[in-house]
Write a structure and sequence with these properties.
- There is one protein chain.
- With 326 residues, this protein is mainly beta.
- 9% of the residues lie in helices and 41% in strands.
- It contains 3 helices and 22 strands.
Amino acid sequence: MTPSQTFALLAVMALGTGCAASAPEAATPIKKPAVAVGEGDKPAEPVAQPAAGELVVAVFPTVGDWATSKRVRHGASRGSTEAMPFSIADLASTVLTPPLDDKAARDATGGVEATELKIEKQTSSYDQYGYGYNSYGGYRSAYHTATLVGFASGSLRIGAREVQVGGTSSGGPIYANCGQYEAKQPLRFEGLRPVPGGDARYEVADGYWDGVACKAMVTSRKVVALSEIVPGKAYAFLHCEEEGCSGKRFLNVVFPEARTVLTQAGPLRLQSGQPPTRVSMQLRRGLAESVVVTQAQSGWKQSNLTVEVQQGVHDDEPIAVAFASE
């Protein structure tokens, strides 16, 4: 090999070695041109990720003036509840006689006329046109209404019919027949009677309805002082089966007005469909009872009232608390 050929071979080897040692050039990415809205797909926007521990709240859109999301709950808009404990031992007690049955009403011969009942005769179209019960020597019976007066709240029962009186849920009067062939029926009326001085009394009267004389006769009457456990909303007294409260005892809670009444036994209603204004709960060791009442507050508003009583097996006296909400 001649010297010129040797030099040419060395130059070619040096050039190949330099090309192998240099790094290849990185490929440049091809960017898509910007596309106007309506002319193609809009490029996706990057989503911001929440930081660690940050709370993310999803905001729903609105339809007109109404939000599709749940309304905001404010604790300040909810009514407050106040606990009012009271002592069972400080309540006045009485023995309430059971209502007269049919036999007792038939056998009752004495008694005094119940001036608390307002009796009014109802005119009928049957009498006007000359036929019906009070014509042609028939039964000679006429409809009358009996209304309890002088009570802030309570109930009236004649025979199998019973209505609530007073308050916003008054059931109205009771319709009773009067005539020469009408039999006697058991009678009971009871309720909250206000007295001068701001005190309140609960009165229970038993007797019978004389359909012939068209009068209500009272044979027994009980009156007990009431203790106010929730101002203007609930009163209480102790009902005993025996004198001296040696037998069974019952906490009686009286409501001047009640729209609904609910206990463990279920909703309590009179035969007329109205809720009662007096609820009786038995007192004994190992027993707990409660009653929830809905009352009218002002206008269309309502308030709830709960009375709870419980006595442990080792407690000498029961514990009673009233909860009033606005």
